[in-house]
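pasting input
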Amino acid sequence: MHYWLMKSEPDEASIDDLATATGQALPWTGVRNYQARNFMRDIMRIGDGVLFYHSSCAEPGVAGIAEVASTPYPDPTQFDPASPYFDPKSRPEAPRWTLVDVRFKKKTRLIPLGELREHPELTSMRVLAKGNRLSITPVSTDEWRFITTRLAR
DNA sequence: GCCAACGTTGGC
DNA sequence: GCCAACGTTGGC
């Protein structure tokens, strides 16, 4: 069992979009970073906990709780020339980009990035590291517990 | 819109 | 394999 923080731009897919999606689940399309891909491909398991994070928006922060809902499979957008995530170098017989489905669990209050930084319990969170740009980062069990039991209301 | 930080590309 | 140039991320 692992825990994760996954960034999504609310303009593209917000926590409300996830809650109202068919089956309350969405394929995590568009990851084009090998480290983030490898987390999904190699380490994630169905049922892993996910902090759903809103990024590149007016109020960046944790917006809800979700869970990993599928085993890894090829991201279909890599083969779609009309998609912004199209990757001409990826071939169907050897897909380069893999994703998982993520399912809604619950909405939380918006826990702002600045508030996460205030808590000594969270200072080693990967997402808070200087210069971090990874869209998927591991969350420790202690960090998960602190955020879901103390901060999420 | 700015820009720091980082990842990728490609010439050599 | 090195590394400069370039593109992207994402908070502010």
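fyi The first helix of chain A runs from residue 15 to 20.
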